Amino acid sequence: MITDSLPCCFIPSKIVVVDDDPGFLDSFDLAFNNMQPFQTFDNPKSAVKFFLNEYKPHSYLDQCLNVDDEVKSDHAVYDYNLRKICYEIYNSKRFDLVPVIISDYAMPGLNGIDMYRTIKDIQAKKILLTGIATQNDAVQAFNEGIIDKFIFKNPATMISELKTAISELTYQFYLDLSHTIVGSLITSEQQKLTCLNDPAFVKFFHNLCNEQYIIEYYLADEYGSFILLDKKGQLSILAVKSEKDLAEYYDFTQDTGNVPNAITDALKSRKKIPFFFSDTDYNTPPHKWEKFLHPVSNSIQGQSTYYTAYISDPSIYDIDSDRILTFLQYSAG
Asked: Taking Cα atoms as reference points, which of 6, 24, 16 lies closest to residue 49?
């Protein structure tokens, strides 16, 4: 799915499906080849109880908005928080966040629209499955903002439409979350993370994810670098720096002095870009940056020029892969 914007985090999260037909619910795993986690309810009141009493949504926002009141510099606050996004890879419950709910309209005791009214404060995209006879009710619910989409319960087209809708709405869910974190940075005088709204960069990023079978990703710094994971939990890194970023890094080495030519020449020629992960990495003096420099694999010309390095072996960084619950492990239960 290609759009003109990129979320700072994307996780193949659990979808909740509500329908009083058990056979219909059983068909979902088969239709999606067990590659999409579902939680199903055959009673709308049970679904309401789950969302109002049991569902404890956790997203990377809970970590990233933990601002230190003693920090006076906005830049320092954002640096600190943005770099915490990627630590969500260690959260074993990250797949339990529900970005999309799917519900039938016609159910005994509580119809789908009334169920959605009851859980209107749950931050999730809502799809209603409806028939021709209830189309007007669905249109009205959509216009009122109660639902985000309605799909006709047509056996010939419904699954195909649902797959598209789940993909699009899940992506939009994470874009909405991202705006809370990065919106002010993109529009600030610092002009950080402009790559997330640059169509050329976004297209490149999605193509890379397709080529490398990436299914989840997490922003790693304020430059647009990402931690990437495939379904088996194989971790890689896309390091990103703009022309302006590299110029600032080069100027910093010149101001510092006594930096080896191999480092300054690599930065000046744009043949290598730096990537730092931990606080220890960021505090490394420039004359010791050699191991953090990675060959540029792509130069992307969009609204700015972006240089990227795909790091398939991130072993030099303090990332504990053994702590990561993979999507395959989660799906297996």
From this structure: 16
Exposure class string for 7-31: b at 16+ Cβ within 10 A, else e: bbbbbbbbbbbbbeeeebbeebeee
Domains annotated for the chain, with CATH where assigned, are 13-58+93-187 (3.40.50.2300), 193-333 (no CATH)
Tens-digit pLDDT profile for residues 67-107: 444 444 444 444 436 778 888 999 999 999 999 999 999 99
Q: How far apart are CA 8 and CA 182, in angstroms?
A: 8
Q: What share of the chain is helix, strand, coil (3-state, %, to 5)?
A: 45, 20, 35
Reading the block at residue 181, the tokens are 């974190």
pLDDT in tens, 6-55: 999 999 999 999 999 988 888 877 787 667 788 999 999 999 999 999 99
